[in-house]
Design goal:
The chain is α/β, with parallel strands linked by helices. It has helices spanning 3-15, 23-31, 63-73, 90-98, 109-121, 158-161; strands at residues 52-55, 58-60, 80-84, 101-105, 127-130, 146-148, 167-176, 181-190, 193-203. The strands form two sheets. Strands 5-4-3-6-7-8-9 form a seven-stranded mixed sheet, covered by helices on one side. A two-stranded antiparallel sheet has the order 1-2.
């Protein structure tokens, strides 16, 4: 399989027709070998228009949804990013090309090992990998300009919200509505007042962690 051609087809058939217009994001997605972050049995669907499950109810969303979340993030090189749920490192590697300062947390031992290995293989040196509970973010390095969660969750904890920079810090996440439907969400912290914006629909059965009601807008 020619993965370079498959990446280009993905960009032209999945991203551009669906209003992904940021040339930097398009170039990064076209140049990042997603197959390098997948096991051999999953490489063939790297650029298909479907979710890719890595472990129980966790994995990579459709390429379009990843691109949408990235585009709505408006990431700059100076942004400090907390990526919650790094999986095997594909999305983390993209974030590392958009910003100079990325912290990723992961608490699944198998994925954590893959994450570290893949970042090293791809010579990504501006990412700090932390093993900790995904539900509460990583307080030690806050505040963050962007908190990025690319797996559906039912609610967001106060602990995570309070780690946002009060000067327009952004939480980009996926709010799980029911078993099938989720919504891409942007929450902006303006002087510790939180503004929520609904971005787009996502149909996925993924969930980042066991659901419990804590903070719902």
């Amino acid at each position: 399989m020619n993965f370079e051609i498959a990446r280009n087809v993905m960009v032209e058939n999945q991203l551009r027709p669906n209003r992904i217009t940021d040339s930097i994001i398009i170039d990064i997605l076209n140049e990042t070998p997603k197959e390098d972050f997948l096991t051999d049995d999953l490489k063939y669907i790297a650029y298909s228009d479907e979710d890719i499950e890595l472990i129980n109810k966790r994995g990579y969303l459709k390429n379009l949804h990843i691109a949408q979340l990235l585009q709505y993030s408006n990431i700059t090189k100076k942004d400090k990013i907390l990526h919650i749920g790094g999986l095997s490192g594909y999305v983390t590697s993209i974030l590392s090309k958009l910003s100079n300062n990325v912290i990723v947390i992961e608490n699944n031992d198998k994925l954590l090992n893959e994450l570290k290995k893949n970042l090293k293989i791809n010579n990504i040196e501006n990412v700090e990998v932390i093993n900790c509970n995904l539900e509460f973010g990583y307080l030690k390095k806050h505040p963050y300009d962007i908190i990025f969660i690319d797996c559906p969750i039912k609610s967001i904890s106060n602990e995570i919200l309070n780690q946002l920079n009060p000067n327009y810090g952004k939480l980009i996440m996926i709010e799980k509505i029911n078993e099938e439907l989720s919504k891409g969400i942007k929450i902006t912290n303006i002087d510790n007042k939180f503004n929520k914006e609904i971005l787009f629909d996502i149909f996925s059965k993924f969930t980042l962690f066991k659901e419990k009601d804590e903070f719902i807008f």
